[in-house]
Every structure is written in structure tokens, then in C-alpha cells.
Amino acid sequence: MLAAEPLLSNDAAESFRAGHIVSLPDESSTIADGARVLRLGDRNWEILSQGLAAVIEVTEEQIKEGVRLLFALANLKAEPTGALALGAVLAEPDRFKGKRVCCVISGGNADPAFYAKLVEGI
Predict the structure, then answer these.
(1) Would you tell me the crossing angle of helices 112-120 and 60-74 to the nearest 10 degrees?
(2) How far apart are CA 82 and CA 58, in angstroms?
(3) Which of 15, 16, 96, 105, by CA, is between 20 and 30 Å from 72?
(4) How far apart are CA 44 and CA 11, in angstroms?
(5) Which of 35-44, 45-54, 109-118 shows the lowest mean pLDDT across its residues?
């Protein structure tokens, strides 16, 4: 199993690289506001450190493109945090090429004006 998180808020990826929980110094400015955390919780780390193969770090542009693709191709309104899984596929397409992939897409709670700008590519 893989996880996805914003490159700008990559506490989980940093933790996996270090082999222990790493805390970020400040909250990031990622558009994926649901992932703006300073560190993984202790219980989350206990579970994830045993069950994940990797954490894919997703750029802001890949998050935006995920939101746009979900809207344009699947008629889904997903907030940026909910589009992280698709952003991970965009970040590492060779990892997923020729495979069946299941992305968990969640959350449509985005500010309407901000969401419209995302979809329009502004």
C-alpha cells in the first residue's frame, strides 16, 4: 500500500526516510489544507510504519492537475486533499503503468471561488 502527501507538508515521507516520527517546524502553505500537519500521530506512525511500502510526495501542480482531471474526466468535485491519490499517480506514472490502481478520493468541501480557479487552471 502507498500513501500520498503534499511535498510542502511531507512529515510522513520524512518520517519514513528517518525511521522515526519527524516533526515539521511550521505549518505549510499547501493547497491540500487537510494535510497541513506538523507530524504524524504516534498511533498513526505505529500502524503506517508497518503497513506502507512508500509515501509519494506530490507537488502543488500535481495536486491541481488531479483536481482538474477528476472534475473533467469523472465529474467529481474533490478538494485538493482528496485529489492527493491521483496526484501520486501523476507524480510517479511509471510505478503505476500497466497496473490496476485504486485511488481513494474524498472530500468535496472546497471554497467555490477557489475551486473554480483550480478547475479553470488559473
Answers:
(1) 90
(2) 12
(3) 96
(4) 12
(5) 109-118
The C-alpha torsion from 122 through 109 and 89 to 71, rounded to 10°, is -60
DSSP SS3 for 92: coil
How far is the C-alpha of 48 from the C-alpha of 12, rounded, in Å? 9
Task: Identify whether the C-beta of residue 2 lies closer than 8 Å to the C-beta of residue 32.
Answer: no
CA–CA separation, 91 vs 85, rounded Å? 10
Nearest to 13 by CA among 45, 42, 47, 46: 45
Here the contacts of 22-26 (C-beta below 8 Å, separation 24 or greater) are: none
Predicted model pTM: 0.92
Residue identified by cell 526516510 is 17
DSSP-derived letter for residue 55 is E
- Alpha helices in 19-97, H assignment, sequence order: 42-51, 60-74, 84-91, 93-96
**Amino acid, res. 79:** E
* Topology given in CATH for the domain delimited by 2-120: Rossmann fold (3.40.50)
Sign of CA dihedral 73, 62, 90, 109: negative
